[in-house]
Amino acid sequence: MNRTALHVCLALLLAILPMDSGAQIQLPQPTGFINDIANVISPEAKAEIQRVIDEVRQKSGGEIAVVTLPSLEGRTRDEVALQILREWGVGRSGQAGDRARNSGVVVLVVPKETSPTGSGELKIELGYGTNTFITAAEAGAIRDQYMIPAFQRQPPDYGAGIRDGVRAIAQEFAENFDFELTGDPVVQPQPQRQRGRGAPGSMFIWITIIIVIMAISRGGRGGGGGRRGRGGNNLIWLLPWILSSGRGRGSGGWSGGGFGGGFG
Fold first, then answer.
1. Is the pLDDT of residue 30 over 60?
2. pTM, rounded to two decimals
3. How far from each other are the two terminal CA atoms of the chain, in whole angstroms?
4. Which of 110, 134, 121, 148 is closest to 62 using CA atoms?
5. In this structure, are residues 181 and 166 in contact, taking their beta carbons and an 8 Å threshold?
6. 77 and 122 in contact (C-beta within 8 Å)?
7. Helix/strand/coil (H, E, C) string of 133-163?
8. Cβ atoms of 62 and 130 closer than 8 Å
9. Model confidence pLDDT, tens digit, residues 225-253
């Protein structure tokens, strides 16, 4: 590999490596859109929250993820909520112009009973697309009116607060995407398989990439030697990066806002 190709390789590595790796906690793999790791949501409240989340997904494509953690492990609520949005891919991907693109919300709660600081933490993290119809002020109003009062009860009712907060967030989706919240998700018909169709578009792209790389490789081994042949061979190292760049990633939009605060 010549010096120019080495510089390009290093630049690509720097571009794709996370720059904020020091501000991360070890997140478990998500098990759906409700991850009650702190174990503070009752089964009844969880079922109600799930129905609202399912209805929003089916009627708008937006995604709401609820996460409770016993501790932030020394990180801020902003860092952890944003990490969840990114790593778990909350908010579907889509083409430009898709109204539901990156319309994800993360509701992060740390109970005061398990928090090392003795103060509970709450963060409503908004995806890039969600910021277009839920402002930071509106997220703050949802926090103060629907969630904090339930958290401050004796004993605290985290399930009720999260349920009411998720309902209020869902209402924002309903107003933006022009649907009515009924409490019952829409039953989607199962698509029928179609046989006899050609290869999917992604397969065509992979085949094209492989053919191009093979052509470049052969050109590098062909007659003439010299610098031209070496340049062709040096492009081979780009193959893994090209292939990996075509894979789908978690779709969660990079957050541009939200509202958080402590309680206790």
1. yes
2. 0.65
3. 59
4. 134
5. no
6. yes
7. CCCHHHHHHHHHHHHHHHHCCCCCCHHHHHH
8. yes
9. 444 444 445 545 444 444 444 333 333 33
